[in-house]
Design a protein that fits this description.
single chain; alpha+beta; S-adenosylmethionine decarboxylase; 7-stranded antiparallel β-sheet
């Protein structure tokens, strides 16, 4: 099975959060997962513990999620192609997680919550925060 991620630049043109939210409730979804893949991020930002911590705070506020404790941020990966910071932030409604690959300056963020939020707002903010040259995003409703 393969999920599709779509260009953030293309999705921004047609995304309607009110329609998205209606669909979420119509389907009686239990939760939603947004995956954001970033390419060519700023190495200065993705290699900075303080920037990553602030991102978790800012993203949680942006999508109106109550943080549960502080984020956990560690350097992770045994091979050079995957070595980079990994991070998690528990939120009252679930979890935000991410990993960055230093070698390619790529980032991979997942936001799961049983409370509906605007995934485009989160993806746009994330792309801009990490100064990525491009981003892909996908959303899955969980039931």
């Amino acid at each position: 099975m393969r999920n599709n991620l779509f260009s953030l630049a293309e999705l921004e043109k047609t995304f309607d959060f009110k329609e998205f939210e209606k669909e979420y409730h119509r389907l009686k979804s239990w939760g939603m997962l947004t995956s954001i893949d970033l390419k060519k991020c700023s190495p200065k930002i993705i290699k900075s513990y303080d920037h990553l911590k602030q991102y978790m705070f800012d993203l949680s506020d942006l999508i109106d999620m109550r943080r549960f404790g502080d984020p956990t941020i560690i350097t992770f990966g045994e091979k050079d192609e995957v070595l980079g910071y990994s991070m998690t932030q528990f939120i009252e409604t679930s979890l935000i997680s991410g990993h960055f690959a230093d070698e390619t300056n790529s980032g991979f963020i997942d936001i799961f919550s049983c409370k509906v939020y605007n995934p485009m707002k989160a993806a746009t903010f994330t792309k801009e925060y990490f100064e990525a040259t491009s981003a892909k995003v996908g959303v899955i409703f969980r039931d």
